[in-house]
Write a structure and sequence with these properties.
single chain, alpha+beta, NADH Oxidase, 2 domains, four-stranded antiparallel β-sheet, 4 strands, about 40% helix, about 10% strand, globular, binds flavin mononucleotide
């Protein structure tokens, strides 16, 4: 027995358990504004990060750290950064229906996810700065990124299981944002702020967003070319459908 878990018992057809799991998976929905008066109990934060802790990761490196932010002043500063970033993207004419980040300032639950990319060394890399080394390094970084996403997803599902609406924010990738936000949270320069997870009771009922149908995303044995989308079809989706499916009524500026 490891970490309170014993080997799974047969049979492998636990449909009822699957359905209970899918209830949580289906009910996970994004909200960008929450009931600001609600206080998330400490144990809920711990339950959520406990789910994240069990995630798989390349080389079992577990290259993540979760900072639970409870200080309203820090939430305000984080949120303000995103509000400003949103306006900058609009001013720069970036073709992206950026959402309103105001709700981050008062999100009852706010967890900053920190990644440690120094773990690239845990994967096959040459370490000599050559082109080949770069190729392996990029692959190692992708592995680490996927690992943190796997862990983050477990946290989101745990929050959804508790009944909260969730909000996954990644808009902090740029080095400039890293430099601005690390000191706010006391994060060493070696580490990267990779995601912010907000959660809480939604201010208004969340809605289920468009999801592709099962047969659209699935092939058997070989990639089914009937499902292949051309560049023109993707451009058309970005132009016509993306604004509608992404944000509905949340992309307005106010
Ligand atoms: C990797 C990832 C990055 C995301 N980044 C952002 C973000 O920076 N800002 C934001 O408002 N929403 C972000 N989202 C939320 C998506 O817009 C949302 O999940 C999507 O529209 C589907 O809606 P749903 O979560 O209700 O299924 C992100 C989601 C994921 C998984």
């Amino acid at each position: 027995m490891v970490d309170g878990v014993s080997a799974a018992a047969e049979p492998f057809d636990e449909v009822e358990r699957y359905e209970r799991f899918m209830e949580v998976v289906r009910a996970r929905m994004t909200s960008r504004e929450f009931d600001a008066s609600y206080v998330v109990p400490r144990e809920h934060h711990e339950m959520i990060v406990e789910a994240a802790r069990h995630a798989p990761s390349g080389a079992d490196a577990q290259p993540w750290h979760y900072i639970v932010v409870t200080d309203p002043a820090v939430k305000e500063q984080l949120g303000e950064h995103f509000v400003r970033e949103r306006y900058r993207r609009i001013e720069l004419g970036m073709n992206f229906p950026s959402p309103n980040y105001r709700g981050m300032k008062t999100a009852p639950g706010l967890i900053v996810i920190v990644a440690d990319f120094r773990y690239v060394k845990a994967f096959p890399v040459l370490g000599d700065g050559s082109e080949l080394d770069l190729m392996y390094r990029q692959n190692a970084e992708r592995i680490l990124l996927q690992s943190v996403a796997a862990s983050t997803m477990a946290a989101h599902l745990a929050a959804a299981a508790l009944g909260y609406a969730v909000w996954w924010v990644t808009a902090i990738g740029q080095e400039e944002a890293q430099r601005a936000l690390r000191p706010l949270l006391g994060v060493p320069d070696e580490l990267s702020l990779i995601d912010i997870m907000c959660f809480g009771p939604p201010k208004k009922p969340p809605y289920k967003r468009w999801k592709k149908q099962l047969d659209e995303i699935m092939s058997w044995d070989r990639y089914d070319l009937a499902k292949f989308r051309t560049d023109a079809q993707i451009d058309e989706w970005i132009e016509k459908d993306r604004p509608r499916v992404m944000y509905r009524d949340e992309s307005r500026i106010d």
